[in-house]
Inverse folding.
């Protein structure tokens, strides 16, 4: 039996509850596949929003930023909400009303924790790089104390978490299936173009395997 | 001279202010290009997040949902924040610290307004379809009163709005340019796969031109 997440009053899916996902592995997979997340935080009592990169280690979702960032300073010790959404396709129905999108979406509520200490911070940032471009961390020059001080790493436990998924074709009103209207879905996914050398790249350096492997072009 | 947006204390860009964009046409173009937006709203005093489709008409950004949706009911008359972000590429530097992403991002603060009345609501939903799949509205069966009642359309004025853009290659520490480390960018963009017929499609209906034109495959 798979590990199921227990919904809270906040994470119980109200609209389209048939799309709710509380399987922990499925939630992890969505977080791992999403390129970006959004973090909602309180700015003088009103909600504010910051898009950022995230990564996951076990049952924690991490993000980072400048230690001087207003988003990170204000979200310390306060309730925030994180959402990561992947758009998978457009669902074109026979009526405007039944148009939709296919997506996978994870929402996490909680009070963020801060990663403290040189070693823990370095490990967290290494985990970020291992997620973003596996095999690259080893190739880079070492991170230094000044950079570690300038960086804040935060995380939320995947406790108060829910996911919602829509997949498949349009669901039209029964009588509309007889109409002469094309209906279907159009899948969409991120596609990478060929890596572009930095203008100041040292002569003789080719695109390394870890970059080629990670960012395979759409048609390869 | 182009129309410039005046920053407020909330929309003044603090971190990376060289990336701030206050040109109104540029803000419009980012909103029009972004597939999704996120809306942050208050749920019992804590921030909550909802991803949704948006569209723009002039100086307003619109979204819609079920009239029974908690997000829409709770965000009536309350301050919300909307952000739409497009990921344009991965920026691979010579140190972990200078890794980044290229992106275009728009943030809007305000109290949402509701579109009232059959005609105004129909026009707004038509504008949504014209944005999502131009030429499709005319092919569909007409929207009816029950559907209009079940749908709430909201908008924010593009008054308290800001944008941030990062483009170009990595910016490394001067001494790191001498290292034997490949650096550069990997562009990313959404790519559409071929349209998939609905399983219950009426025989003889081909993918129409308005769908083919809107969702051109990546390599076409």
């Amino acid at each position: 039996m798979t590990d199921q997440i227990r919904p809270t009053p906040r994470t119980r899916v109200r609209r389209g509850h048939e799309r709710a996902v509380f399987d922990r592995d499925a939630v992890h997979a969505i977080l791992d596949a999403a390129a970006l997340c959004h973090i909602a935080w309180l700015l003088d009592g009103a909600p504010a929003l910051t898009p950022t990169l995230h990564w996951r280690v076990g049952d924690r979702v991490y993000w980072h930023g400048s230690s001087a960032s207003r988003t990170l300073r204000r979200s310390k010790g306060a309730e925030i909400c994180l959402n990561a959404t992947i758009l998978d396709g457009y669902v074109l129905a026979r009526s405007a009303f039944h148009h939709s999108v296919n997506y996978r979406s994870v929402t996490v509520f909680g009070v963020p924790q801060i990663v403290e200490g040189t070693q823990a911070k370095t490990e967290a940032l290494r985990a970020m790089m291992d997620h973003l471009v596996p095999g690259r961390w080893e190739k880079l020059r070492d991170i230094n104390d000044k950079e570690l001080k300038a960086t804040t790493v935060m995380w939320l436990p995947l406790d108060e978490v829910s996911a919602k998924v829509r997949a498949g074709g349009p669901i039209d009103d029964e009588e509309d299936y007889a109409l002469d209207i094309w209906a279907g879905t159009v899948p969409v996914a991120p596609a990478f173009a060929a890596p572009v050398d930095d203008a100041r790249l040292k002569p003789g350096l080719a695109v390394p395997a870890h970059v080629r492997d990670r960012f395979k072009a759409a048609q390869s």
Notes: Chain B touches chain A through 92 residues (CB under 8 Å). Chain B is about 20% helix and 35% strand. The domain at 17-190 of chain B is CATH 2.30.110.10 (Pnp Oxidase; Chain A). The mean pLDDT of chain B is 93.
